[in-house]
Each structure stands twice: as C-alpha cells, then as structure tokens.
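Reagents: none. Just compute today. HPP family protein.
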Amino acid sequence: MNVKIIGVALYIMLIYGISKHYPAMHGLFFPALGAFSFLFISRPFNAKAMSSISAGAVLATVVGTLIYYLVPGILALFVNTLIIIWLNKVKWNAPPILAVSLIPFFTETPRIWDVPLAVALSLAGLTVTLLAADFVHKLLMVTFRSGSKLAPGSEEAAG
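Predicted 3D structure written out:
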C-alpha cells in the first residue's frame, strides 16, 4: 500500500479526533481537507507546488471571510465566487480552493481570523505529513533494495 495514502488517512483521522475532542479546534476539520489530500496524493507534487496551492487556499479563505463579514448575504457569496475563480488564473488548478473560501458562509466563528488560521494550520500539517510520508517511502525503497544483500561480516555477527 502507498505510504502517502496511509499518511493522509492517519492525518485526517488525527485532525478529526482533535476537532471532536477540543471544541476550540473544531475548524481544523473541514470537508475540503479530504479534497486537498486527494489532490496532493494524486499528482506528482513537490513541496513548492503544495505550498503554492495551500497559500492560495489561505488567501481564498481570507477573501471569503472578509467578504462575508463586510457584506453578509447572497450577494457576498456571489462576489466571493467570482473573485476566487478569477484568482484561480494563477494556475493553481485546485478546485478545493473555491470550497475553502465558502467556509465562512456556513461556519460561525467567534473571531474573524479563525477560519483562515484553521485552514492554514490544517494544510500546513497535511503538507508536512505528505513530505514525511515521501521521506519514509524513499527510506523504505532504499532499505528493501539493499536489504537483500548481507553486509560483509554480518554472518559472523549474527551467529
């Protein structure tokens, strides 16, 4: 099984557990986190690409939050959608970016910065998890490729 898939599943489980047990951390778990996870493991991304998409998601969340607080209602949702689709011309090619910009429209938070901060922390954690999974995968590949050969003198040490 792919190490990245296991890493993502464990990360989503961890974030869900944290959000369920600590009400202040409820915003860390959002549906688009699964979409970002799938996006990041389904393409050959590097840290720079994942960071760029994550920054786009945080920017979209900031835009969505500001628009929601400045002009609450249906018109704000329309304006937000237009702006985020226009911002996507940066070539992020990541549909979940629009999804996270909509979080303020259906999630009540006590502070204006809660949603952007939660998205930033969740995606940073996802990026670190995937980079760690990639490292483990490479380490396993090296270990199992060279593991079939015994090191010189290892027969004597084992016996």
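The first helix runs from residue 3 to 21.
Action item: order primers for follow-up constructs.
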